[in-house]
Design a protein that fits this description.
This is Antitoxin. The structure is a single chain. With 65 residues, this protein is mainly α. 71% of the residues lie in helices and 0% in strands. The protein has a domain of 27 residues. The mean pLDDT is 86.
């Protein structure tokens, strides 16, 4: 089992808390950098949510052949 699988398993059922933490940390970074990297921070937030947050629930599994 990879490290990513272990992290996902630990966070399972806590997707809303993960999303809030991602948003809060992104806002913190934007505040500290005075919004200089807002686009990159927003992209990172979206990718993290897709990987660990509620975006993971919305993804459809690939069809079985």
């Amino acid at each position: 089992m990879s490290m990513m699988d272990k992290i996902k398993q630990m966070l399972k059922g806590r997707e809303s808390q993960v999303d809030r933490a991602i948003d809060k940390s992104g806002d913190f970074i934007d505040d500290k950098t005075q919004g200089k990297y807002k686009g990159q921070v927003d992209t990172a937030q979206e990718r993290l949510k897709d990987e660990f947050g509620t975006g993971r629930d919305q993804q459809q599994p690939p069809p079985q052949s």
